[in-house]
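Feature request, filed as a ticket because there's no other form

It would be nice if the structure record came with a short human-readable summary line next to the tokens. Right now we just get the raw output. Example of a typical job, pasted below so the devs can see what we mean:
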Amino acid sequence: MEQNIVWTGIDSLSIEKCVLIDKGETIHSKGDLVGNKNNQVYGVEYQVVVDQKWETRFFDITCKVGHKNYAIHGYKLNNQWIIDEQEHPELHDCLDIDISVTPFTNSLPINRLQLKVGESKELAVLYINPIEERFTRVVQRYERLSEKTYHYKNLWSDFESTIEVDSKGVVTHYPKLFNRL
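Raw output as currently delivered:
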């Protein structure tokens, strides 16, 4: 099964196309986006592979900002993140990634956690900002408010928002940041 998704970015004036392909044992996503933040044009391509539990197994991200290029590649091996061929034991408890420029990666914990309405969960996440060329471990909280609504809070920055998803748990509306077409 293949699903094509298009988001527009509000804050960063971006347009993104994402394709999700369910291959049985894994779900593959491929996204391409272009945007403008603070008068800086950028382009990002990403690939993410998750297993049937929606645990991230692999990612590959390339970003171009002006004349600068940034790439980051990671995969999970024996519960250990290997990023650009280096082990990162401080990230061992991160089952999800969050790529700052796309709402797609918010769909990863939403689908993995399978929260009931009224339930919430804090989780460690590998946060990747390709424009700033950095990644780090952060703690986030998701609370399911209704069948298609989640309250999201990034505990390291106090950023929070109420995210809407479709029946497959894929983000449709992320106030002030992203809208799905």
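Something like this underneath would help us a lot:
The chain has one helix and 15 strands.
The mean pLDDT is 96.
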